[in-house]
Amino acid sequence: MLSCRKKKRASAIKRIRAKFGRCVEHEILVFVSGRNVYVQIVDIKSGKTVKTLSTCKKGDRKNHRNIKAATELGKKVAIECKDNNINVDNVSFNRAEKIFCGVVKAVADGFYQK
Prior knowledge:
By secondary structure, this protein is of the alpha+beta class. The protein has a single domain (about 15-110), classed as Nucleotidyltransferase, domain 5, CATH 3.30.420. It contains three helices and four strands, in the order H-E-E-E-H-E-H. A four-stranded mixed β-sheet has the order 3-2-1-4. A hairpin with a 4-residue loop joins strand 2 (about 35-45) and strand 3.
């Protein structure tokens, strides 16, 4: 049995996917933790993760969950998409249940920056 929080999250993800559709080939998944921001590039057809990037630095316990680090992460994701021959214009940006502001918006801005 799912908890109330998991039910809300599942319904939010369902709503977002219904709104933006799943007709694209790749998806950018964003997860924001207490200290870091994580991004995955997922191939929707096969369901496999192509690349995973984050703001984590090995051995560093500082907080890297800020706008500057998130924008740089978005730029790195765009570069990785180009390296893996993924069309940046044909990518769905999935923020799960997170509100599109702050760090999540910074990742998107860095990714779609021309």
